[in-house]
Amino acid sequence: MDINLLKQQVENIIGAPLPLKTHSSAVQVTRSEVSQLTDREVQLIELLLTAANEGAKPLVPSKREDELRSIELGEWIQERVERKELGCPVPDRMAVKPLLKVPMLPFLLSGEKSSGLVIQFSKLNKLLRSYFGGDIVLLPLKEDWLILVSEDLLEDLREESKEGMSAEREMLGELCQGLYELITNEWVGGGFYLAVGDLVTSDELIVGSVVSLSETLLLGRMFYVTEHIHLPWELQLERLIYSIPESQRSQFIEENGIHLSVLKDEETRTTLEAFFQLDCNMSETAKRLYVHRNTLIYRMDKFKQETGLDVRTFQDAVLVKLGLLLYKVTKRT
């Protein structure tokens, strides 16, 4: 309430001028011509002061109101995803919309459904704000959490890293690793999985981003069961494999001599996966598996005898890599 208006109203009540002395944070009444006020006049003045004080308080939503607003937008996004209504702009009625400062970097956090762990919105929100060093938008979905981070908060990280797509992806990978460790330290045993997506440059792209992030988590957990951080640019081949009709998957495996019985052997599968992860480097693969290089050569020769494919050659390595990915999909469908 305006102080001059308040002064005028009090003067009308007491019927006398009210000299004021203004300070930076307060207003002091220096004197009054009235020697005594009636009880009714005192009550009226108290009501005026209370109303003025309430009007001066900033309208800051409570933590519970923040959560309810986030839940509202999360439910709207979930509904659009289930209806496959991509490209829908966030309605103006959503109270969170002014906070969607594009471009934003989206993360999707998922936990093991069997863990029974309950994550509190306020606790996770506080943790994320501390990690990113500023305001973020946290939206609870049906089973996951969507985290939207303003690109402005990432500028310091970009300045520290080199330029280029490779450096950008490396920076995002490290960011995910740090975020994953932070969350797992806070909620031990939650079995969390984390994915990051492309920058969201418009609120119309948020629903589509959630769909893409969900697919990234699905592919990552299908092909790399021991990993917890899944990056879309590392799953491009897996995305292509997953799109192949089921009827053609087993056919490809059999036609190229990669028999299912061979891939069912855990030692063979582990050896091949390590070999491909380390860019087909024999020495590094032997170190990773804690075996002598001659032992690794023996395993490769044995695989060649059983399948006719030598993964030490580029052509056969490509076929075996595809066959291994197809086997993983076939085994889980």
Automatic annotation (TrEMBL):
<dbReference type="InterPro" id="IPR042070">
    <property type="entry name" value="PucR_C-HTH_sf"/>
</dbReference>
<protein>
    <submittedName>
        <fullName>PucR family transcriptional regulator</fullName>
    </submittedName>
</protein>
<dbReference type="InterPro" id="IPR051448">
    <property type="entry name" value="CdaR-like_regulators"/>
</dbReference>
<dbReference type="Pfam" id="PF13556">
    <property type="entry name" value="HTH_30"/>
</dbReference>
<dbReference type="InterPro" id="IPR009057">
    <property type="entry name" value="Homeodomain-like_sf"/>
</dbReference>
<dbReference type="InterPro" id="IPR025736">
    <property type="entry name" value="PucR_C-HTH_dom"/>
</dbReference>
<feature type="domain" description="PucR C-terminal helix-turn-helix">
    <location>
        <begin position="270"/>
        <end position="325"/>
    </location>
</feature>
